[in-house]
């Protein structure tokens, strides 16, 4: 866990721009401050770059950091410790003497979160801060274990975030390739349709003339059928006129039945109202009988 934590810290030192990965130039920038030659730094980079894509993800870096040569790892570890020490002693001595205990705890917690890179993966660190302050106050011997646990957690969160970014990039590339393929197929389909349309127009002239002659014959036949339908319609109109006279008589009968129906409905409503009143009176009598029965039982 200590090695992984220091590897994560050194990764953040190299990745000053916060890209989420390290290039050769990022590592070579530290050459003046490391007791390693450019050839040794190149060897370190090539060894850690397992997939050979010219960049190191946090997962590749931390895995290779623990498996690479002890000498090089020790030098990188010493450099990360030196950077950490410089960060902790950056505040002037006079300022440390004047801050209160609360401000000192706030500074130490903020420094811890900065070293862990928590701001990149955690929006609200209030819960972590409360637990850290509680351990610092009540169980100081467990504070180092808690910080190591945070190192592992934030390292895994950073790896998950990097994997998500890699998947998003891969997905965007696949979508772009898919769009290009669809566009190519669409263009080929348009060319094919245009070619077939031209061929169809060339062959369609004779067929259209033959089809036009057939339509004329069908039109004459339909006109004859229409004439027959007109004669039939006249006969039907005459029958409708006869039916209308009978419909007037039916209408008068319907009006009479409607008035009778309305009278029956009014009688039914009256009977229903009387029935409701009778039911209410019956319910009142039942309640009184129930009360009398209860009094009798008492």
Give keywords.
298 residues, mainly alpha, 10 helices
Give the CATH H-level superfamily of the domain at 3-77: EF-hand
Structural class: mainly alpha
- CATH topology-level name of the domain at 3-77: Recoverin, domain 1
Share of β-strand residues: under 5%
Helix content: over 70%
* Strand tally: 0
The CATH architecture designation of the domain at 3-77 is Orthogonal Bundle
Gyration radius over CA: 47 Å
Could you explain the architecture of this structure?
This protein is mostly helical. Among the domains are: 3-77, EF-hand (Recoverin, domain 1, Orthogonal Bundle), CATH 1.10.238.10; 105-175, no CATH class. The chain is built from ten helices and no strands. α1 (2-14) crosses α4 (58-67), α1 crosses α5 (70-88) and α1 (2-14) crosses α10 (143-297). It is flat and about 120 Å long. The chain starts with a helix and ends with a helix. Mean pLDDT is 77; it is low at 69-75, 77-81 and 83-99.
Secondary-structure map:
Layout: H1 2-14, H2 24-28, H3 38-48, H4 58-67, H5 70-88, H6 93-98, H7 101-116, H8 118-121, H9 126-138, H10 143-297
Would you summarize the structure shown here?
This protein is mostly helical and 298 residues long.
């Amino acid at each position: 866990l200590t090695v992984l934590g220091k590897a994560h810290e050194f990764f953040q030192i190299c990745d000053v721009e916060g890209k989420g990965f390290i290039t050769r130039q990022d590592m070579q920038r530290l050459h003046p401050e490391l007791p390693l030659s450019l050839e040794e730094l190149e060897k370190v980079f090539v060894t850690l770059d397992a997939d050979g894509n010219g960049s190191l993800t946090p997962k590749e870096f931390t895995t290779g950091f623990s498996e690479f040569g002890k000498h090089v790892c020790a030098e990188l570890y010493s450099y990360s410790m030196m950077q950490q020490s410089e960060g902790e002693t950056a505040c002037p001595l006079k300022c440390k003497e004047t801050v209160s205990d609360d401000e000192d705890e706030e500074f130490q917690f903020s420094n811890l979160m900065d070293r862990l890179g928590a701001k990149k993966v955690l929006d609200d660190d209030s819960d972590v801060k409360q637990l850290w302050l509680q351990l610092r106050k009540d169980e100081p011997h467990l504070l180092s274990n808690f910080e190591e646990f945070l190192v592992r957690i934030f390292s895994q969160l950073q790896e998950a975030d990097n994997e998500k970014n890699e998947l998003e990039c891969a997905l965007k590339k696949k979508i772009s390739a898919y769009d290009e393929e669809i566009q190519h197929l669409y263009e080929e389909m348009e060319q094919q349709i245009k070619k077939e349309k031209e061929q169809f127009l060339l062959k369609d002239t004779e067929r259209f003339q033959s089809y036009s002659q057939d339509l004329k014959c069908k039109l004459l036949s339909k006109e004859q059928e229409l004439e027959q339908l007109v004669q039939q319609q006249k006969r039907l109109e005459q029958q409708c006129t006869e039916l209308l006279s009978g419909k007037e008589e039916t209408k008068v009968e319907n009006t009479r039945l409607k008035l009778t129906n309305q009278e029956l409905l009014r009688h039914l409503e009256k009977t229903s109202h009387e029935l409701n009143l009778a039911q209410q009176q019956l319910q009142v009598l039942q309640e009184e009988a129930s009360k009398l029965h209860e009094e009798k039982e008492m």
